[in-house]
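**Tokenised fold:**
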Amino acid sequence: MATIRTRRLKNGSVSYRVEILIKQKGVIVHRESKSFRQHKLAKSWAGKREAQLHESQVFGRSEPVFISDLIAEYLDKFKTGRSKRYDLLRLKDSDIAQLDASC
């Protein structure tokens, strides 16, 4: 849900700060804010951004994400040193890697 707050700046002008907060089961899953000079722009951005967030399936994931998958993705994306790579590969093969990271 978006909240628009009015702020007075040092120079006397008015700024409108939009804060979007999305909760699931009482837990904050997304928080975002942006400032605008006009209330109209703030209101339109808030509506568009909320619609984008609710359309995306990011917050409603139904499939589990395992720690081993996250480690594999990290190793593919980033170049690591020998020690770090070894530790991550060791973690990937351990029991903890089979835990669901999405909960």
Q: What stands out?
A: The chain has a mean pLDDT of 88.
